[in-house]
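Re: Re: token formats

Sure, here are both.
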Amino acid sequence: MKVLVTVKRVVDYAVKVRVKPDGSGVDLSNTKMSMNPFCEIAVEEAVRLKEAKVASEVIVASIGPSQSSEQIRTALAMGADRGIHVEVEKELPPLVISRALKSIVLKEKPSLVILGKQAIDDDCNQTGQMLAQFLDWPQGTFASKVKVVGEKLQVTREVDRGLETLELRLPAVVTCDLRLNEPRYATLPNIMKAKKKPIEKLGLKDLNCEPSYGLQTLSIFEPPKRQGGNKVESVAELIEKLRNEAKVI
């Protein structure tokens, strides 16, 4: 079974982002970039399937700027076999990303596609669902446990009422939640081996996909700073402040 995993280059989760003075976007100069944490979980799950002899090959795909090859190399160091890099310089909406991934899936013919449930930069949570719709494949979203049973896939996901287990026919699309696994750290020998693993370079035209920017960002701004709290001496004073200052009653 061949498994395709997607990864995205984002600002490191531990970095406090800075907004440009003109509000046109986030300042990325001298900012640490890394693999989206949900994508790391997806790579880890695919590598575990390979180690369990369930998957025969793990392919990593990324759609982003030229620097995204760094995140592909990280995934290769974790245990993936080869990479596909679709170079684009502008941020694309999930709809275009999904169409490009569909072309990659039709080209590679994997039995399973694993994605992070969302990226921490835009929090769209749309690409996996759109890809499943374009492919007309069954999907299991927010997966906290994945198990391959013969020609079917059992996906456990957290819902409001508890846990829900789905049984999907392969091929299928799965998006990962944080509780699925804990990604491994790439060892130095594997990092060196990853440098020799192939990364195929493609453009959107190679995938018969045209860039479309239907969404336009008008402005980006930081949330207002939280104000300090006040202590009150009595319930009557609390009610007075809620009525006169907060104006909530």
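Second one below.
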Amino acid sequence: MKIITSVAAMEKEMRIHRDANKSIGFVPTMGYLHEGHMTLVKKAREENDLVILSIFVNPLQFGPNEDFDSYPRDFDRDEKLAKNNGVDLIFYPQVEDMYKDSFSFEVKVVNKVNVLCGKKRKGHFDGVATVLIKLFNITQANKVYFGMKDAQQVAIVQSLIKDFNFPIELVPVNTVREEDGLAKSSRNVYLTEYERQEAPQIYKALISAKSAIINGEKNSYNVQNAIKEHITQHTSGVIDYVEVLSYPELETIGELSGKVLIAVAVKFTKARLIDNITVDMKL
């Protein structure tokens, strides 16, 4: 496994692989890898000749009161996990190299951002889009892999690829969960022991909502209220949002139809957890 830390060296390396007609799978991450990331790597390994994993804690997607400085980092641990799971190349750039000059242009995401996490994290997806444009150009990958745990991000990245004609295919991968249902996340380490016991109730609320829809519930407000009641009764977390939206359009709907996203965010003492589930009512 090779580790490359500079943009120039990465661009040179990728030209070699593209000239050799290798199919390239790309897994962008902010590090502190877990099983969820490795599931993306496994999928990329199955479908490509070369698997690239980037580790870059992108400052542009953190707000002024968010956890950029305290975001968990452990490159030695990440390196071992990546190597043991079949990654061929880690791209590990520094902020000074990725953003060495002031930009003449600004990336602004205008659709699908005024709901879910984007509603309260102004500029977050602008930062995500900015770094992905750079990473797509640097890696020249054929496919990019994202987890559905952040379904809003998946929808926005799909639009980014379509709107700017990037020759890359987005491959969404199902959320990876602990045995008790909690979605795997780098931020789970911030949960207290008591909160960790409560946190799986988020997924249980989503499963209950999906069951209600399958059994005929079509009123989105009833679904939202049932989820809020479950989380409030079974956890000490504070609900940030519960939303039921069309997917991938991410539009508010009253009467449920088509493919629906049910998404929640819950704040605990030192961790904000997100989770979601989709229901395709056409099936």
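The longest helix spans residues 124-139. The domain at 2-173 is CATH 3.40.50.620 (Rossmann fold).
- S.
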